[in-house]
Amino acid sequence: MKLKRISATICASLTGLSMTLAAQAQEEQTPDAASIDMEKIAVVGARGAPRTVTSSPVPVDVISADELSGVAFSDMNDVLKTLVPSYTLGRQPISDGAAFIRPASLRGLPTDKTLVLVNSKRRHRSALVQTSGSGTQGPDLSMIPTAAIGNVEVLRDGAAAQYGSDAIAGVINFQLKNNTEGGMFTAEYGQFYEGDGETLVLTGNKGFALGDDGFISISAEYSDNEATSRAKQYCTGAFCLNPDDPNFNPDADYNQYLTPEFYAAAEQMAQSVHGADVVQPWGRPNFDSTLIFINAGYAISSDMELYGFGNYSQKDGDSTFFYRYPENGTIENIRLQDGSVWSPLSIYPGGFTPRFKGEITDYSAVAGLKGMVGALGYDISARYGYDEIDYTISNTINPSLGDATPTSFSPGALSNEETQIQADFTYDFASYVFAFGLSYLDEGYDIEQGEELSYLAGDYSVADPWGFCADGTATAAGTAVVASGSSLNCANSDDPVYQIMGVGSNGFPGYSPEFSGSYDRDSYSAYVDLSGDITDSLYGQAALRYEDYSDMGSELVYKVAGFYQLTEELGLRASYGTGFRAPTPGQQGTTNVSTALPNGFPVATGLFPASSAVGQALGANLLDPETSTNVTFGLTADYGPLNVTVDYYRIALEDRFYSISTLDVSSDAQGDPQAYANYLALANANVVGAETIGAVRYFQNAFDTVTEGVDVVASYNMESDYGMTTFTASYNYNTTEFDSDPSEFLNAEDMYDFENGTPESRAILSVKHAFDDVEVVARASYYGEYTNIDSVSLIEGTSQIDFDNTASQTFSSEWFLDLEGTYHINETLSLIAGVRNLFDNYPDESAPDMAGDACCGRIYRSDSIVDWQGGYYYTKLVAKF
Predict the structure, then answer these.
(1) Are residues 764 and 781 in contact, defined by beta-carbon separation less than 8 angstroms?
(2) In sequence order, what are the residues at sequence separation of 6 or more whose Cβ sits closer than 8 angstroms to the Cβ of residue 796?
(3) Cβ atoms within 10 Å, residue 635
(4) Closest by CA position to 266, among listed 509, 274, 403
(5) Residue 247 burial (CB < 10 Å; 0-12/13-18/19+)?
(6) How far is 108 from 732, CA to CA, in rounded Å?
(7) What is the pTM of this model?
(8) Could you count the other beta carbons within 10 Å of the beta carbon of residue 631?
(9) Distance CA 599, CA 695 (A)
(10) Measured between alpha carbons, how far is 279 from 267 in angstroms, rounded to an integer?
(11) Is 126 strand, coil or helix?
(12) Per-residue DSSP letters for 194-228?
């Protein structure tokens, strides 16, 4: 049996966008080829003509618009997580911008190693660089509305040789709708079982004809999402607001603050600032968004088409930082210029929890011309993309300003900008397709300076700013304030006159001139790709790509892949390729100082560029590209109503980009000698406020890893007198292990959690039944068990973990069941009602001895990929016209 290439236009495979030309190709199909129309077709994975999923040489998931709309989420990240088991998503409620742009992964690798395309064109990155772990900077998928999407293709294989840098783990291609008429509108409302997290989502799409030969499809989405709180009252070993908590110490010196007035002030702060009954909520942040996408095309002639698409999206979100309690290093007594004692409690009598807001603006435009000249297909395009995050922090102070501090600040903004010109060509040699292309990409990243008071080192950033004391005795100025009634005691080292206060808006200090600026680079690339039927049963593909970066040098990568039709029903496929990813300008230049709680006590933690004076002083190496080797092989089975694919993969990643474990810093010469040495290094690098920095991190090419796994996808369609039933099952098993010694960059806890801190197994099982005017969908999601450790002890004289003296917790496996019913009122209107997490299942609570996971009001591990928000119910009205 000769393998059949789908007889769609070559141009469609280049851009995923076709109208008149595709219709012409449809008329040329043979009867045999027409039968394939009902199967799922994939554009990604081959630079030649599109292929069916079961004859693709690499694993591809094709998700239809109906499947997308059948998931009760507005965030595209959540939609993919629900439908693709190897796509996982965490939530980081208190993590700067990561509270709004959540880190995700495909096949166990972060999303900056997955290339995102829209209509087969590269999607620009978000301005946010995740400031911990893998330091991901990838596109923000939440800016893509489901209403705009015709289908999504998820290529689960390395494809850097075909599509360029970033495509190490795979490719996600969003194909926009190209309807010339009709449209849809949906209105959805829901909330969590807990009574919070109310959500309103309005979506719409309308297609218009442009004359007889063109179209324009306009899609929009508005969503309003209220916050959730899954927390208990703040309590740690250092300070506890809950007398019923085991950590509460009735003899602690902080009890002087726990008066009825303090409790009342703390409760009032919690309610007025974030509408919760606890001073530090944990959960989903508030956010609302408006997303608009436009897709258009016009056939100039029978073999030439002009196309364009773009978006404008706006998202506003706000979340919290950690609660600041009395004497935590932020709320301390100081002596003012008149000799009196002042405390931030005079502004916030119950302590305070900084509130952090991000305003995200995202827009893009792509235009191109494609067509055919004989057997030569061409696609010439240009794109521009821009993403910006503008920060605001409120309910806070700049401690170093003392009583002159404002309570809200504009700490600055981040932006990412990309411009690309691309030319793609194909030439059809009957049995083979030769593809080649060129690209130029210009990238820029900008850190915009914040308002001066957000980073200013005020008078109280040093001890005794008014010169009241010298060598333990009062100066003339000190004697004068004592004479006026001040309680100043220069002989007492604990006197507030010696207090040093932190610099900058507490929680997120603003970007100062020293740590603001722009980072730019450009790159060139060229590729060739040959694919086709080698024999009647064997399809082969080979690709070669050269990329040259102005800041990272050049690299040549390649890939070979093949599909062999073993029998009429069974096929074998395999691929081998190399990959390349250059750290982005944002990853090279980002600087961030925020508050972390490594031991339950807040310290200012700074992330500095590896190339900065700070990074260099502490031993950082300049960054290099990551390189990879990908191997996959699999089996496909097509038995009519039953389709099964099983694929093994192995991704060896060298010089992996990662944040080092935190380096402690202390200005106390009598304390930890290494922390003091780090402080001296920062001071010698002329870091402003070095004495207020508690820890430093930077990104490095830290280690090599090997990621291995198996993907299984199966579907079965069953038709009976009672309607059509579709069963789908997908399973992913994934492990990642170090392939080099990471101990130079990571501590024992981070090394263990890197390999063991997420579930290795995940599965999604669903059944959809349609009968007359009723449809029912049931979906079960499974997460395997995983283990996390905390407060690590090492076996004496070794770097091995002493598990007998190390806190650890194994989280059990979890199942979540979703149920949805649809009633089609008529051809236009449908009413939907459903429940996510029907049985209100939660993961295991964090064990009390897991200080890093259980502190500060947390009930559940807050960064877990296993959802911890509980059950959610919703109803939706759908109108199609």
Answers:
(1) yes
(2) none
(3) 15
(4) 274
(5) middle
(6) 10
(7) 0.91
(8) 16
(9) 12
(10) 7
(11) coil
(12) TS---EEEEEEEEEEEETTTEEEEEEEEEEEE---
Structural domains in the chain?
10-228+237-380+405-463+499-880 (2.40.170.20)
* Contact criterion met (CB below 8 Å) for 353 and 321: yes
Query: By C-alpha distance, which of 547, 711, 538, 558 is closest to 630?
Result: 558
> Taking Cα atoms as reference points, which of 574, 576, 577, 568 lies closest to residue 634?
574
- Please list the alpha-helical segments (H only) found in 621-741: 673-684
Q: What is the pLDDT of residues 578-615, one digit of tens each?
A: 999 999 999 999 888 765 545 544 566 788 899 988 88
The residue assigned the tokens 């408006």 is: 290
Amino acid at the residue 323: Y
Tell me which residues of the chain have a pLDDT lower than 50.
1-38, 597, 600-601
Q: What is the pLDDT of residue 47?
A: 59
CA-nearest of 90, 91, 95 to 596 is: 95
Long-range contacts of 196-200 (CB under 8 A, 24+ apart): 196/226, 196/227, 196/228, 196/229, 196/283, 197/225, 197/226, 197/227, 197/228, 197/283, 197/284, 197/869, 197/872, 198/224, 198/225, 198/226, 199/74, 199/223, 199/224, 199/225, 199/226, 199/874, 200/224
Return d(Cα 324, Cα 683) in angstroms, integer.
27
The region that residue 534 occupies, defined by phi over 0 for left and psi between -120 and 50 for alpha, beta otherwise, is alpha
Q: Please tell me the distance from the alpha carbon of residue 468 to that of residue 474, in angstroms, as a whole number.
A: 6
| DSSP class per residue in 397-458 | --GGGGGG--SEEEEEEEEEEEEEEEEEEEEEETTEEEEEEEEEEEEEEEEE---GGGT---
pLDDT digit string, tens, across residues 430-478: 889 999 999 999 999 999 999 999 999 899 988 999 999 999 999 999 9
From the number of C-beta atoms within 10 Å of its C-beta (0-12, 13-18, 19+), residue 31 rates as exposed
Task: Name which of 703, 678, 702 is nearest 614 in CA terms.
Answer: 678
The span from the CA of 238 to the CA of 397, in Å, is: 22
Host H or E run for residue 588: helix 585-589
Bridging pattern class, strands 603-607 and 693-697: parallel
Residues in the chain: 881
Q: Is 165 exposed, middle or buried (0-12, 13-18, 19+ CB in 10 A)?
A: buried
DSSP bridge pairs for 304: 301, 371
Provide the 10 A C-beta neighbour count for residue 536: 9
| Cα 847 to Cα 90: distance, rounded to the nearest angstrom | 20
CA angle 855, 858, 861 (to 5 degrees): 100
Give the pLDDT score at 375: 92
- What single-letter amino acid sits at 708? E
8 A C-beta contact, residue 364 and residue 417: no
Phi-psi region of 655 (alpha: psi -120 to 50; beta: other; left: phi over 0): left
Burial class (CB in 10 A: 0-12, 13-18, 19+), 570: middle
Indicate the helix (H) or strand (E) that contains 686. Answer: none
